[in-house]
Queue: 4 jobs
Job 1
Amino acid sequence: MKTVVVGLSGGVDSSVAAYLLKEQGYNVIGLFMKNWHDDSVTISDDCPWLDDSNDAMLVAEKLNIPFQTVDLSVEYKDKIVDYMFNEYKNGRTPNPDILCNREIKFDVFLKIALSLGADYVATGHYCRKRTVEGSSNPEIYKLLSGADSNKDQSYFLCQLSQAQLSKTLFPIGELTKPEVRAIAAKLNLVTADKKDSQGLCFIGKVRLPDFLQQQLQPKKGQIIEIPQTHESYKVKQPAFDSIYDELVFRSKKTNYSITDGKVVGTHQGAHYFTKGQRKGLAVGGTVNPLFVIDTDVKDNIIYTGQGKNHPGLYKSVLLVLPSEVHWVRPDLAIRVGESLKVMSRIRYRQHLESAFLYATLDGLYVAFDSPQSAITEGQFVAWYLGDELVGSGVIS
């Protein structure tokens, strides 16, 4: 009998995942990850991890499976939290949920599970795994989007490797959320009607700006509004000698200065804001809402533009540096000089957009057919062939 360690989070998805695996004949062990308990970075008296741990324990008791808690808070601080603070400090916007999966759930947690004698780990992610037909020694694994398009979480797993996939199961990937809740309700699980968790993967019920202020000190600066008539938006695309020259041109970042616009307000720290952000600016009196189009953490300036269609929000080409390119399917990786037609997204729940990948010595250029809003440094771009996520990278 194969043994599976399920990451019981205290939510309905992992609860049903554990049940399904037991029904399939696996020897199932429930393991709750205690990810954060640093009192120096606490906003409220809420203790979501305690509530979640208790719910996970009750589910394990109901399913009659062994259960224990493992404290991964040290690893979280080292691999996720410190990295996240540093990225925001440098004006970039990391995705802690993707890092959490790559560095914690499918690395540290996986190693703990294997040390307990497990053959696999399993989570409640809405995605699927398949083996490439004809592949053997070693087998090649596909990471597919979840059957429930409204809940597909493949994007959050875009940094997984073949080694990690080989030891991972996704039991609810073929189900929809309503089907998962129906199973939990039928079993009378305490998590059946529990709301999905919100906020950061490691601190729960905490607003990100509040969390950042624990480590990144407030610093008053100016909010500048850039008009839609800014000179950089009028530059005509020149004739290019090569596709490479066009990619470089279209991926260039617009550099703004205070003299390019007018002061419309103040903020408490450019490192608290990210491209595309609307909330938190506290600036009124404009015809259309203001959106952040760029941040300058060095001079502590936020550049904004009116309306969600402001040209400063849009760009059609992004670059992933060579060291940041990751192929879930290394056998499909393209070499310098090659290109690949894909579907791609730059954020969770975004509709997949048609794009081309171009491998160059600079790195991997992702050229979208249509301009994308708020392409943000530090975030992840993921690319798909059909419903298979084949690679990803950090946007530079």
Job 2
Amino acid sequence: MVKTIEELETLFDAYSPSLGSEAVRPNRLERMERLLSALGNPERSYRCYHIAGSKGKGSTAAYLAALLTGSGRKTGLYLSPHMYTVRERFTLSSRFFSDSLYMETANELLERTAAFALPEGLGSSRPTTFEMYTAYAYMLFRNAGCTDAVIETGLGGRLDATNTLSPEAVILTPIEKEHTAILGDTIEKIATEKAKIMRKGVPTFVSKESNDARSVFEKEAEDIAAPITFIEDEINDIQSETMENGENVSFTLDGERIHLKLAMTTKAMAENAALAMLAAKRLGFLTGRGIEELERTALPGRFEKLTIDGALVVVDSAHTVNSASASIDAFNTIAHGKKTLIYSSVLGKDIEHIVSILFPSFDKIIISTTGEYRKSDPDEIERIGKDLFPDLDITVEKDRDRALEAALHSSSSILITGSFYLASGMKRIIEKEGL
């Protein structure tokens, strides 16, 4: 029985992190359907909005939830991973539910799955960690009386545990090369995986994409008769400027020039906010109060600015080529003095191109690890960096505490980016040390 938030933090770790066998991957949706059926299909208790993409899906989901909340709807938001607390995954439009509701729902989930077992041939008889996270989110939103919920996919889309929804709308954020060992080694293959969250007759809203990704989405929409809207066809002249206290944004939608001041910075956030507003307007819930909610929205680890011992420290999670470009552009706007990068990446990312974008802006680069949850190879990243930039000061420090200490010792401006797990680990160190 879960009695404290501390116990909730470790609850989901008791389940298998993955299925472990490629042979059972095609059965993932059946696994989730059986689990949800055993729980009374809580996901059918409210309207859902489903979001997939390589980058920007979390912030776009948060922006859409803010717009829904501002229109007067009680809106759940399901994101992953989390940085400080597992509660970040399941919020009331970025605000925590009461601790009692988190624990009551956890105990209900445990009680109702105590005797639950998946049949042979579908992989592990017990649900995986992500399947339990997802089921818990759906139950929590039902128990809270949510009218709407915005759901972010985990990895991919086609076989993702969240792809058991019947959404009101689908949103697709930028597609880049990521998790290539699982999703495929081309933009077309990755886009195909993401496109499979689209549904017949359900409107789909799409960010600015490469021609390869756009073609995949257009074909899927045609094949299943889904109305599709691309941001570049509807929104003109998106302008953004990174400031110390936020992102100044403007764009034109339906002939009206819109001006925003976003709490989260980088050009990528400007485009994500515009995409969410486009969807909200076409779906009929764009309001002035919703825009105010959107402007205030902030998530941990999304270009989060701190001051430590007089140094500017930015914690970000730029793990694709475009997000790295947006991150470094914004950082260079506000950075001063000697600049240090602390970087790491999980395996399967387009590391060479990301390194070529990030490294030249820094006086010192420290390559660290992503922690115990995802595999990384800092020595290989060092090799790539030194091959590309033999004159740069590039070192490996696998101990993240020491990496941060070294950066603070010699720098005025520090960017911590790459894997979300690096950002999460660094923020935990900062909080622990009281910096």
Job 3
Amino acid sequence: MKELFRVAYELDRRNLPFALVTVIGTDGIIPRQNGRMLVKEDGSFISTIRGHLITKV
């Protein structure tokens, strides 16, 4: 997770847009109940969310 926040710091320092996504709830049987993901403007992401289906809305 340190990598996630290091990238967020660097993007913020460069004044580049990003979103920090936090999973606060889930539905069904999954291996983890929480996690975080940083999504860059181009749609690429860095994630600590493992084993989840990630969909763009």
Job 4
Amino acid sequence: MKLFTKPIFYLLLIVLGAFILRLYKIDAPLADWHSWRQADTAAVTRNFIKEGLNPFFPKFDDISAISENPLVNPNRFRFVEFPIYNIFTYPLYLFFGINEAYHRLVSVLFSLGSIVFIYLITKKYANTFVALLSAFIFAFLPFSIFFSRTILPEPTFLFFSLGMLYFVDKWITNKGKSVALIAYIFTAVAFLIKPWAIFFTLPVIYSFFQKHQRIWPVPLKYVFFVILALAPFLLWRLWILQQPQGIPASSWLLNSDAIRFKPAFWWWIISERIGREILGATGAVLFYIGILKRPKNYFFHTWLISSLLFIVIFATGNVRHNYYQISFVPIASIFTALGFYYLVKGSRELIVRLWTIPVAILFLALTFYFTWLQVKGFYQINNPVIVEAGKKADQILPKDALVVAPYNGDTAFLYQTNRAGFPFVPLPVPDLITQFGVTHFVSTSKDDQTNWVMKHFKILEENDKYVIVDLREITTSFDKETI
């Protein structure tokens, strides 16, 4: 019976429940929400299997120009984050075969680790009840569940960032060389995955201030720690600069459409993301109560400020891509748990507990229900035809085929063909043949361009859903001027 009184028992139940829910549609085709970004990530791991594991030259399937400058990318380099997430998935692909479910499983396992870190961090700065509730909310929020099983580097990044936050904070307050070493590993890996791990450092600076009662001067051990932890990231950035054609354009993430601080920005972030997808209207109320209640210390508030700074600085990226808010979910879960706790505990500043307790329970329950209504559509396969056409192309095309799979620049369709090529038609088809050696054309739309290709080249497969054309065999002569 003593087991049922121990927090670890309930934490394990939360982790187990989170694992089970994250298995929902884990074997679904890679054509759901944000499939383009997932396809790019999955392609890197698949190409490690097909072409050999070389993390210093990650490759995906797209050979079109992806960089700031209009440079073609014939080697298909994919220089974004260091492919740590792909490296963790590689053994599963190697021993059990290429299957996107294994990629999702790795994301799931990292997200379970994030649940544990949320519990440990919250327990230190709040109490056990709030820590368990924070872990529970993060584990079962529909937004968190969906993105915790996507083929994105974010779940891995979040795990190492939370580990960085926990161990660096622990090192500052408790010292210890072993803790410092673990903190270094988590910090170095977090920055290697994504440089905006820097937005998790403000709470650590707050911890340093609390411990030493000053900001400056900084002891040399912390200076050396920062230099050593950032060294792998800096070396990686210097390395990838040697191949600029493999670095995707990223400056647009800041404020390319000038949306920052405009009404539309607040509507997207506050209303759509926080108020609907992540927390819902009722969860947002608990979240704001948690923020407004005066704390014993401001560790969580500095963490929240860091998260908001990331959203504001990368305004366009956060508005266009809701998966950017994955790093916001942990602190959102903590403040929602704090809001719930303050209502249940009761306070002279609020209504009597006779009302606050049922309101807190109702609001928390509705949080999961309302957000599920928004998130369930993310699991939908938006265009099943690209999966069907891609499978057929994979069956009948040569392994070395170079494919044009036009899908408005979305690489999800190209990924389904299991071939390298173009996700759109950047040049007239004859030019793609002569300049790049493109061999096949796969399309799910019988537009003018596709009809022209079908008229002049050999059709390998055609039905009312898609067409596959062999560009190596001309059936009807054509004048390039008429293209």
